[in-house]
Amino acid sequence: MIGGTRNLGPSIVQTLLQRGDRVAVFNRGQTPDDLPAGVERLRGDRNAPEQLKRALGGRDFDLVVDTTLYTGPEAEAVVEIFADRIGRYIFLSTGQVYLVRIGLARPYTEEDYPGPVMPAPPRDDTQYESWLYGVDKRAAEDVFTRAWEETKFPFTSLRLPMVNSERDHYDRIYGYFLRLKDGGPVLIPENAGLPLRHVYGEDVARAIMQLSSRDRGKGRAYNLSQDETLTLHEFLQMLAEMMPSPPRIVRVAREELEQRGLLPDCSPFSGRWMSSLDNRRSKEEVGIAYTPLRTYLQKLVDHFQAAPQREIEGYKQRTRELELAKSR
Question: Is 16 exposed, middle or buried (0-12, 13-18, 19+ CB in 10 A)?
Fold first, then answer.
């Protein structure tokens, strides 16, 4: 496992261990983790290829799961280091590879990937980093595709939308949970916003298990996504029903929320870069079954309620949100 300490990483490691695998994680060692002592720790900076090569280059692995690869050059280093030394390489990509494409309609299918990419926004534009993220992930996927075509490098790319889990280090659902819990209004933009079609972290871990336990999916990309698509308002209603806490929603112009610096904290599911993925290929070819949204959302609520309340970055401006809501 390259990465292994945030959001998806611990769940994937635990699932591998439960299957009886011997697991090593490669990372810088800067993020505390609660992985079992039996997990081998390999240290280094993956942005320095010589460190990755020193730690991993002389060893063979049945499976490599890479959670922290973002660019074409990083992919080229992986292909060089692991050539003829691995049984399968699983790359966690993103639905943003579709968001930078021109002329697509939601939900995106894997067949939508080829085609023209939008030009780069100005570097001082607030959309530039999101555009770059999608373009860089595409560059990485293209490296792996060429390596498969030329040398049968055994990669599989998993394209993920937003991942909801108990360990989400962005605390997106937890931020909504805290706002509903305090009884105050939730500020969201006036426009309807993008449809929500995310994925549960445990489903990603199970997909990796299914792919790595059989010889299928090599040289392929798969969208992973829950089955349900809903609006932000519908999501907040569902979340509120589970607490229970009647949702108080106040709509404010997006421009005002942005000017006041309240977005994305006040409503992280109101971003302009949120993908919606068609998951049929993953179900038909790999046999992946997705946890119903209501089921996994209840698991998250139960987890939040059972744990002591945490202070999170996205809740620090809550007083300013409440002041703005009063003025409406």
Answer: buried
Q: Is the pLDDT of residue 36 over 90?
A: no
Q: At what angle do helices 172-181 and 318-326 cross, to 10 degrees?
A: 50
First-residue to last-residue Cα distance in the chain: 49
Q: Is the pLDDT of residue 48 over 90?
A: no
Lowest mean pLDDT among 30-39, 165-174, 190-199: 30-39
Nearest-10 Cα torsion for 37, 171, 199, 196: 180
CA–CA separation, 5 and 9 (whole Å): 5
Place of tokens 């996927």: 141
Confidence class for position 4, pLDDT limits 50, 70, 90: confident
- Cα–Cα distances (Å) from 292 to 128, 238, 299, in that order, read 34, 13, 11
Nearest Cα to 22, choosing from 39, 3, 4? 39
194-211 per-position pLDDT tens digit? 999 999 999 999 999 999
**Residue 306 exposed, middle or buried by CB count within 10 Å (0-12, 13-18, 19+):** exposed
Closest CA to 160 of 108, 212, 125: 108
Q: Is the pLDDT of residue 311 over 90?
A: yes
State the Cα–Cα distance between residues 97 and 111, nearest whole angstrom: 12
